[in-house]
Amino acid sequence: MLSIADLTDAELFHLVRMARGYAATAAAGSAYEKVLAGRVIGTYFRKTSTRTRTAFSSAALRLGAEVIAYGPGDLQENTGETVEDTGRVLSRMLDGLVARTAGPDREFAAYAAQDRMAVINAMSEGEHPTQALADLTTVLRVRGEVDGAKVLYVGEGNNSAVALALALTRFKGTELYVITPPGYGLPAETQQRAKSYAEASGSTFVCAHDLARAPKSTDFVYTTRWQTTGTSKADPDWRTVFDPFRVDAALMARYPDARFLHDLPAHRGEEVTAEVLDGRVSAAFDQAENKMHSAAAVLAWCLAGAS
Known about the structure:
The chain is 39% helix and 14% strand. It is of the alpha/beta class and 307 residues long. It holds the Pfam family OTCace_N.
């Protein structure tokens, strides 16, 4: 699974339902079915990760697989071996590869240019598809359905926002408002694709650069860290541009029935205040747990064809 856009609507909906099923299994104190017994999963993280790496490692082990972990200094890519050759070699020894490169999206196509090993994008420069699955799993568990959900996203149009836009707009009657600082919006290609999805599903998709354009009501207010993992900003005064887009108690007061989402890690006092992140309306840490359940769904679906 390289991109949310690679999934059919049916596959996307199925993965979110699967993740909810794994969450229900865990909540009941039961174990995941060992559908990956005898399989070997590699996890390759060039960049730091707390939630995604732990989510996929834990999910793989709970599904019965063995896990081999690679860090940024472990593979011969550091000495010049190509991504294509790395994928071809690993595919002879692994059943699946979960990778976070924070590099160009095309690298994942290179890893996947073989027919033996499943490849899962755990974050590239352009998209964080498994984060969107965790987000939708959270929406489903909070509301009971994703159809009709309203989400206000505030902050940088980063790879998590890209994946969210490509996912939520596929569900019927949803509303997604993406409010970003000028110059930090979603890529034009993502906007066009999300608009197309929204038209097909009867949903609303709005991108703007002023919180005055925010909706009158929403079910969720979502932000992410302003400094995305593996990136930097050319403008030395970028924080000044971002300050008006902080999620604080005043913004949440406009939406008294909304829950707060954050993909974590969070920098309290920057993109969100501690009062909101640690308050009663925050679902951020449930959202983090749902990364494990959605990771289990992706692994089971990719490697075992689980339904």
